[in-house]
Design brief:
Length: about 475
C-alpha cells in the first residue's frame, strides 16, 4: 500500500468513548497494542485537527497476526491422543493462515477503520482457536490449556517486538511501510555482510573432545523433491507447513510417511546406509515471475511467491563435542532446529544463521545478507547435539534434545550425540528484497524464521562408523 498523504483539511475530533472502544478492539484480548490512531485524533491534537502524517503512518504499521504458539505449551501427549493432537495443532496453523489471508485481502479497509480487525479477523479466529484448544486440552488431559489465554490473537506491527519475547527484543527492526511485497520481506531485512563484525565463537576442544567428522553426500535436491508438508510437526496433514520444503536424503518423505516407509525408502545420499530425511524451507527469487506452485498450497495460496532456487551446494556433516566423546543417535530421532514462527514467537527457539561465502565468521540471525561480487549466500543449520537418552521425539518436538552450553557441555541428564551441521549455498542477487525464505504467511518471510528438520534413518552400521570416526578424530564419508 502506498503512503497515505496528510490531509490539509480539519475534521471534528472523535468522541472519547469511540476512541476508547477502538483501542479496546485493537487490543484483541489483552495482547500487544498494534496501533491507536484514534487517541491522537481526539486527544493528541489540541486544535481538534485530524490525524497527522505521523499518525497516518502509524496506521500502516498493522502488518500481521500474532498468536500464542499452543504447541510450545504442551508438556505431554499420550500416544493414544497423538494423531488427534497433531491434527488440531495443524488446524490452528490453518486458522491463522486463513485469518491472515482475510486480513491481507482487506488491509486497506482495516487500516482505514481498525475496528474491523476485531469483527473481520480476530473475533472469528478466537472462536475457532477456543474450540481447537479445548479439544487439545481434553485429548491431552491438560485442562489448564484453556486458562492460559492461548486463544486470543492480536494484530501487530512489523517493527514491534513479539508479544511473548520477554526481553523485548525486536525480531528484525524494520519499518512496516517498506515491505517489498504485500507479505514481506522488507528492504531493511537485508544488510551488507561487510558491515557486520565477526561474531562467531567456537569453543576450544578439550582433552576428551571428539574432533572427527562424518560427511554424507546427499546432493542438493537437483531432482526437485519438494512439498509443503511437515511430517514431524503435522504428520498425516497435507500442507501442514504452509510453505515449501526442499528435501535431500530420503525420497519417501511426505506428511504420511511412517518410520517403516522411511526405512524402505530410496535415498539421494551416495552412501545408501543413510536414508535420513533432511529438509528446509526453499529460497525464492522475488519479482522475477512465479514458479509452478503459484496457485498451489504452500506456494501462491500461502503467500509464497517467486522462483524457487535449487541450492548451488548442500553439505551435510556430523561433528563431535569439544568436551566429550559422542554416542550414537537413536534411529528415527527427530530434531527441529530454529523456529518457523520466530517472528511472532520471539527469539527463544530461533536458530537462523545467514552469511556469505568468505565471510562465515559473521553470522546473521534476523537479517538476510547482501554479499559482495563473487560471494554467495550461505544458510547454516547447527542442530541440537544433546539427547535425553530416552525419547526420539517429544510433545513440543524440542525437549527431548538440547543445545550444548558455551563450553560445549550438555545439560545434566543429556548425552552428547553427533551434531548435524547443514551448510546450504545459493546464487541469488545481492539486492535488498531480491530473495526470501518461504514461511508461514503471517511470518512475513522474515529471516529469523529460518529452520531445518531432520529424521535419523542411518543404518546401525553406518551410524556406528560415523561415531567411531568422530570419536577417533578422523574425517570420513
Amino acid at each position: 500500500m502506498g503512503r497515505i498523504s496528510r490531509s490539509p483539511r480539519k475534521r471534528q475530533a472523535l468522541p472519547r468513548r469511540m476512541m476508547m472502544a477502538a483501542a479496546a478492539l485493537i487490543l484483541g484480548g489483552g495482547g500487544l497494542v498494534a496501533v491507536n490512531f484514534y487517541a491522537s485524533a481526539s486527544e493528541g491534537d489540541a486544535g481538534g485537527q485530524g490525524s497527522s502524517g505521523h499518525d497516518m503512518a502509524q496506521m500502516q504499521m498493522l502488518s500481521t497476526i500474532d498468536c500464542p504458539d499452543v504447541g510450545n505449551s504442551l508438556s505431554t501427549v499420550p500416544d493414544s491422543a497423538k494423531s488427534r493432537v497433531d491434527r488440531r495443532l495443524a488446524d490452528l496453523d490453518t486458522q491463522i493462515t486463513d485469518a491472515y489471508t482475510k486480513f491481507a485481502d482487506n488491509k486497506d479497509r482495516i487500516q482505514r477503520d481498525p475496528r474491523l480487525a476485531d469483527t473481520m479477523v480476530l473475533n472469528p479466529l478466537k472462536r475457532q482457536r477456543t474450540d481447537s484448544i479445548g479439544k487439545i486440552a481434553d485429548a491431552t488431559g491438560q485442562p489448564d490449556l484453556n486458562d492460559k489465554g492461548l486463544a486470543a490473537c492480536t494484530m501487530r506491527a512489523a517493527d514491534a517486538p513479539a508479544s511473548n519475547d520477554q526481553n523485548g527484543n525486536q525480531a528484525n527492526g524494520q519499518n512496516a511501510a517498506d515491505n517489498v511485497t504485500a507479505s514481506g520481506p522488507a528492504r531493511s531485512d537485508f544488510v551488507d555482510i561487510r558491515s557486520v563484525r565477526p561474531n562467531v565463537a567456537t569453543p576450544r576442544p578439550g582433552r576428551g573432545a571428539s574432533t572427527g567428522t562424518f560427511t554424507s553426500d546427499c546432493g542438493r535436491n537437483q531432482n526437485g523433491k519438494r512439498n509443503p508438508d511437515n511430517v514431524i510437526v503435522a504428520p498425516g496433514v497435507s500442507n501442514g507447513a504452509h510453505h515449501m520444503h526442499d528435501y535431500v536424503g530420503n525420497q519417501a518423505t511426505d506428511a504420511f510417511s511412517s518410520d517403516a516407509d522411511l526405512a524402505r525408502g530410496n535415498t539421494s545420499c551416495r552412501n545408501q546406509g543413510d536414508k535420513s530425511t533432511y529438509y528446509w524451507p526453499v529460497v525464492r527469487i522475488l519479482n522475477q515471475g512465479n514458479d509452478i506452485d503459484a496457485n498451489a498450497d504452500g506456494g501462491g495460496k500461502d503467500k509464497n511467491v517467486g522462483k524457487i532456487q535449487t541450492p548451488a551446494q548442500a553439505t551435510i556433516q556430523l561433528v563431535g563435542s569439544p568436551v566429550s566423546k559422542v554416542t550414537a543417535m537413536p534411529r528415527f530421532l527427530r530434531i527441529i532446529t530454529g523456529d518457523a514462527k520466530a517472528f511472532t514467537n520471539g527469539n527463544a527457539n530461533a536458530n537462523a544463521s545467514w552469511s556469505c561465502t568468505g565471510f562465515e565468521n559473521r553470522q546473521l540471525k534476523d537479517k538476510y545478507p547482501l554479499c559482495p561480487q563473487g560471494s554467495q549466500v550461505v544458510r547454516t543449520f547447527k542442530f541440537q547435539s544433546c539427547w535425553d537418552g530416552k525419547n526420539t521425539d517429544s510433545a513440543n518436538h524440542r525437549t527431548h534434545v538440547a543445545f550444548a552450553d558455551k563450553r560445549g557441555a550438555c545439560p545434566a541428564g543429556f548425552k552428547a550425540i553427533p551434531q548435524l551441521v547443514q551448510r546450504i549455498v545459493y546464487d541469488v542477487p545481492a539486492k535488498a528484497g531480491a530473495f526470501a525464505v518461504d514461511s508461514f504467511p503471517e511470518q512475513l518471510h522474515k529471516p529469523v524464521t529460518d529452520h531445518g528438520d531432520f529424521i535419523d534413518v542411518f543404518s546401525d552400521q553406518l551410524m556406528g562408523k560415523a561415531v567411531n570416526c568422530i570419536n577417533t578424530g578422523r574425517s570420513c564419508a
